Amino acid sequence: MTVTPPSETTIADPPNLMPSERPYASQAAETAPGSPSTWSILALLRFVLASIVVLSHYQALLSVAAPLGVTVFNGSAAVIGFFMISGYSIAASIDRDNCATRFYIRRLARIAPIFVTGCAFSLVPWLLSPSGIVCWGSVQRFPALPTILLNFLGLQTAFTPAIATYAQSWSLLPECMLYLATPLLSRTKASVVGTIAVLSASCYLFNHGGDAAMFRSTLYLAWAWLAGYILYKQGLSVLAAVLLIVAPAYLLPMDVHQDSHSPFVAVSCAVVLIFSRQINAGSASKVLNWLGDVSYPLYLTHVATMVILNILCPSLALFAPSWLYVASVAVAAVLLSVVDHPCRRAIRSLQKRATRINSTIEVA
Questions:
Q1: Is 3 helix (H, G, I), strand (E, B) or coil?
Q2: Rounded Cα distance, 64 and 174, in Å
Q3: What span, in angstroms and rounded, lies between the C-alpha atoms of 295 and 96?
Q4: I want to staple 226 with a disulfide (CB 3.0 to 4.6 A). Which of 24, 51, 197, 339 is the partner?
Q5: pTM greater than 0.90
């Protein structure tokens, strides 16, 4: 999804506070990741989860067998894994920034360029087939203008349906809502954050995933995000272990959006997240980080890519299905290089310029 590897931060604990009473920001010194390899391992995990989503959508979109005959895991379970990693990474990010405004700017700069580009790209299939496209088992007409505008603003599933070829973008809204709450969470007692996580898991349990809109809401997914957040802030506490291991194993089998493989996917993700600090990526770090970066545009653009290729070459899905996955990764790599990297460089340049201006003003 939209996770970037933050740098390590050390913050001292205030005196005379029990661990359960400390604001979360005060506990980072005990739990901060010990090596940059942590972020490389999580980057690889994000790419694997994005690939699971791609393969699950491949079957749903085109109604054909999975490429190479592999077992396709449930994409909804992969989203649960994404939320766990996101919570862990955002906890580190807010510790580093220690400023709500700077944190929000960094999140917006990281999310917006690829999100807007992906939304525009999702409309391309209708340019190739104006009368309608086959997507999700039915013919989809060109979306109405209000739907397009609200999708560009990231408000799909809140005020309008998602564009059919951008349906997977639903997860960005609850994730962004959690981003908005992060500065407040960082100043909240650990016991309160833990209570919120338990309440969220309870809501997920009693809903059983029956209402798709509810499943996609911030309330019903917050427990997975907070599981990663708590792991970073507290280390492997009892609550973190319950949220990361026990909750997915117990909750997901009762969710109509999941299948028999879902607990395995979510729990496996949690295990990698827990032990990521002990794994050394070594010389592969650069490649793993690139895979992590490409996972975000891959997640947002793969549906449109597969629909476009199915329009241009229908036989490809039947006789060379693996190439649809390869093409999806290739398109994501191009967007990463053409859109994301230039935007990051431009933002860094603006930040340096702003720093120089502020320094000049202070000296004057």
A1: coil
A2: 31
A3: 23
A4: 197
A5: no
